[in-house]
Amino acid sequence: MLRVGYPDTLSSDLLREFPEGIEAIPVSGKMDRDVEIDVWIPDPYASRAMRAWPRLRGVKLVISMLAGTEWIPPLVGPHVTICNAHGAHNVATAEWTIAAILAMLKYFPLYLDIQRSGVWKRRFEAGAHYAAIAGDARPIYPPVMLEELAGKTVLLVGYGAIGKEIERMLEPFRVNLLRMARTARTEPEVHAVSELDALLPRAEVIVLILPSTAETRWLIDRPQLALMQQGALLVNAARGPVVNTDALVESLNAGRIRAALDVTDPEPLPEGHPLWSCPNLLITPHIAASSPQFAPNALRTAADELCRYINGEPLHNVVQAAI
Ligand SMILES: NC(=O)c1ccc[n+]([C@@H]2O[C@H](COP(=O)([O-])OP(=O)(O)OC[C@H]3O[C@@H](n4cnc5c(N)ncnc54)[C@H](OP(=O)(O)O)[C@@H]3O)[C@@H](O)[C@H]2O)c1
Questions:
Q1: How far, in Å, from the CA of 210 to the mean position of ligand 1?
Q2: What pLDDT is recorded for position 229?
Q3: What are the start-end ranges of the H helices in 3-150?
Q4: Cα–Cα dist 245/59, whole Å
Q5: β-strands 318-320, 81-83: how paired?
Q6: pLDDT of residue 247
Q7: Taking CB atoms and a 6 Å cutoff, what residues make up the pocket around ligand 1?
Q8: Which of 139 and 266 is assigned the larger pLDDT?
């Protein structure tokens, strides 16, 4: 029997797709004794998983329910193999990205504010909003009340499972797409990260969808923000540390760019943090993948990986191989 520890907060119904030959063992951060397991599916909330880890013995494989696993290697060390939930959250995260782009281009944050005030004629504030974003105060008639996505250039910074899903969902919007990943390739054309600075001035919408690593820390820093077009929209669906927060706050407060963030650095974003009050900014508190399908999708991915593990086949989603 392969002993698989899973968060005791999950319904055991969700484990029904696990293969034969598994003993599923509920694990919590409140355990008062050590537990021997072979495979650990950690709680997706890092703080809960961190409380459980000291009680676990014998873990050889960690299967995360998340696509981003940056906090797991420092927790479990180098002698454990780690797999992520590659693919499980593509749809939810890509849908959030499309919603965030459209919400910002249709000025939904402004219109929600207007709705709450109950004053119809405040809609004319949209014209001033557009003028500030465009950096051009010349009046336009009839007044601009929102923008179109069609015809805009969208740069995908990261072209993995979720980046490709975002591309698929963007198809009907008739945008010009630029793709960037670690390495360049063709069909479709993907630029290398070394070309980032050359690509940034070409895009009206920049989507960050790549892992948080030492290499991607502050990939978007002051020079990159300065290279973006006046009024460009920066969408961060990846991880907070990919962007230098202080530099982003400066750029937003200067009215240079706008942003939609599902993730921030630090996280949780403390009350009173300068990001909360920046103009032209939409923040959601790291919820992009948290639909009712989160756990079923993640555990289906885990079940597939467990099948391969039991059968001695190569694992698909290894982000750290044990040394
Ligand atoms: N907001 C949320 O709730 C949420 C939900 C899910 C995921 N995420 C984040 O989204 C990230 C991406 O997920 P995914 O499933 O699409 O990952 P993935 O399939 O592994 O793709 C990652 C992409 O990032 C690129 N990349 C990696 N390191 C890079 C570097 N140093 N410079 C430039 N590009 C680099 C990769 O380039 P190559 O193709 O050249 O290897 C690849 O295109 C996750 O790691 C996670 O942090 C966030």
A1: 3
A2: 98
A3: 46-52, 72-76, 90-105, 108-117, 125-134
A4: 36
A5: antiparallel
A6: 98
A7: 67-68, 86, 89, 93, 158-163, 181-183, 193, 209-213, 215-216, 237-239, 262-263, 286, 288-289
A8: 266
